[in-house]
Amino acid sequence: MSTSATPPIHPGTRIGHVHLKVANIDRSLAFYRDVLGFEVKHRFGDGAAFIAAGDYHHHIGLNTWESAGGPPPPPGTTGLYHLAILYPDRATLGNALQRLIDAGIALDGASDHGVSEALYLRDPDGNGVELYRDRPF
């Protein structure tokens, strides 16, 4: 609910991509590319990589410009809670779960929200990742 006099953002607005500060590009690609299956669209040495599902220019930007070798932020500090990756259906979400199991990646949790089903985990830099699918209406 908006309490501002400014009109709200259009409900059809979508977020096209997210950029994450990471400590190591290769380690992050081992997770996002090799486990989750994103494709590398562009890579700039050890400084940045841009990855996507399909032909979009990039859904996730990974960079070490200010974070090379850095630790994750300590618990209880501000920052990204999680990024959410929407899968088209239950079968593809199930495939993602199997990829996580095969890679030995533990879940932080799972939830049935009634309108969606979600898996929660952490990437190698401690960023929260939600993998989910919307239930059909």
What does this entry look like structurally?
The chain has 137 residues and is α/β, with parallel strands linked by helices. The protein has a 4-stranded mixed sheet, covered by helices on one side. A 4-stranded mixed sheet has the order 5-8-7-6. The protein is 15% helix and 31% strand. It has helices spanning 25-32, 90-102, and strands at 18-21, 39-44, 48-52, 60-63, 82-87, 109-112, 116-122, 128-134. The chain is built from 2 helices and 8 strands. A hairpin with a 3-residue loop joins strand 6 and strand 7. The radius of gyration is 16 Å and the shape is globular.
| Annotation, overall tally of beta strands | 8
Q: Give the termini distance in whole angstroms.
A: 23 Å
The dominant shape is globular
Estimated radius of gyration? 16 Å
In short:
The protein is α/β, with parallel strands linked by helices. Helix content is 15%, strand content 31%.
Chart the SSEs and their pairings.
Blueprint: E1 18-21, H1 25-32, E2 39-44, E3 48-52, E4 60-63, E5 82-87, H2 90-102, E6 109-112, E7 116-122, E8 128-134
Parallel strand pairs: 1-4, 5-8
Antiparallel strand pairs: 2-3, 3-4, 6-7, 7-8
Question: Which tags fit this structure?
Answer:
2 helices; alpha/beta; 15% helix; 4-stranded mixed β-sheet; globular; 137 residues
